[in-house]
Design a protein that fits this description.
It is a single chain. The chain starts with a strand and ends with a helix. Strands 1-2-3-4 form a four-stranded antiparallel β-sheet. It has a three-stranded antiparallel β-sheet with strand order 5-6-7. Helix 1 runs antiparallel to helix 2 and helix 4 (about 145-170) runs antiparallel to helix 5 (about 175-180). Strand 2 and strand 3 form a beta hairpin. By secondary structure, it is of the alpha+beta class. The longest helix is centred in the first third of the chain and has 32 residues, at about 10-40. The protein has a domain at about 1-75. The protein is about 55% helix and about 20% strand.
Amino acid sequence: MKIFKPSPRYLIRLRVVITMYALAFLTLGILTAWVASVYVESTSQTTRIVQGVIIADLIWYLPALKIVQSTYRARSYQFDEGEIIIKTGWWTESVRHIPLSSVISFNMRWDRLDRWLEIGTLEVYLASRHHVDGSRIRLTGLADIETVAQLANLLLKRMQNARLAEWSLPNRHQERNLLSHRY
């Protein structure tokens, strides 16, 4: 059993994204006030629009920063022999068990902000009968994503080899044990 927590740089990433949304909202509000000032001769209405936008921006931005911090602290990823356990949730704890038997593959992913912060995302592709492409789960904010991906692939190979041994060889066959512990 191996437990991974997101990197502290992932919290920085979350805060940067929230701040970018807040700045976009503020910019749109200021542009709206500027357009209103062109058509209205009174600057008091423009000032009220800008003040309202700033207050509205702060009303959601400050709690969002606190929620992001709580979300970051609650997230963890646990790799066991037969499953991946993802724990999340800032208000209520959510635990998701993903059996390795439903995993097709793993993919490492870095977007621009992740590369700057030297963190990454491990995408877990699952077999799904509802979608042709299957579904995917993301393990975000990992600092040493290569190590996590190697561990995940190793566990997946072990599980696949154990299944292959079960299907292809009788119970007491000597090569069955060798196949199931090959990796």
